[in-house]
Amino acid sequence: MAEEAGVDLVEISPNAEPPVAKIIDWGKYQYHKMKEQKNRNKNKGGELKQMRFGLKIGSGDLEIKLKKIKKFLAEDNKVKIQIFFRGREMAHKELGFEMIEKILASLEEYAVAEHKPQLAGRNLNVVIRKK
Fold first, then answer.
1. Per-run averaged pLDDT (10 residues), the chain, 131 residues
2. Vertex 60, ends 57 and 65: CA angle to 5°?
3. How far is the C-alpha of 129 from the C-alpha of 11, rounded, in Å?
């Protein structure tokens, strides 16, 4: 049957009773298998990197951290931006939200937020990914 169809007869399980064989085009099968492997490697999605900011960060330090975030995004990683509050800073949560909006605005052309900023305990978090 395989010769008539012009394809290959491939033995799948030789130790089974009776032996199992398949009639397939071996070249086409190998091609699709290789293509699936490439797609699997490509769809890795990257890691989740984390960048922490204090509420009183200076503008120079902020610029350095933003450069690092851009580098992480260029490597196809997601970035979790975390603003942490210390002591009485919790009384001024609105400053944290303003800061995170400022950070997201400066990264607007590179990234998009996966969800709105969330306050979890003493931390304000948002996850961004490459556009």
1. 88 89 90 88 77 94 95 91 94 94 93 93 94 86
2. 75
3. 46
The CA distance from 3 to 83, in Å, is: 68
The pTM of the full predicted model, rounded to 2 decimals, is 0.64
What's at 107, amino acid-wise? L
What are the tokens at 78? 């997601």
Residues in the chain: 131
Any alpha helices (H) in 23-129, and if so which ranges? 26-42, 59-74, 93-106
Strands (E), the chain: 8-13, 20-24, 48-54, 78-84, 111-113, 118-120, 123-130
Angle (CA) 65-67-71 rounded to 5° is 115
Among 126, 58, 119, 62, CA closest to 92? 119
**Which residue is it, tokens 């997601």?**
78
- The residue among 131, 130, 123 whose CA lies nearest residue 51 is 123
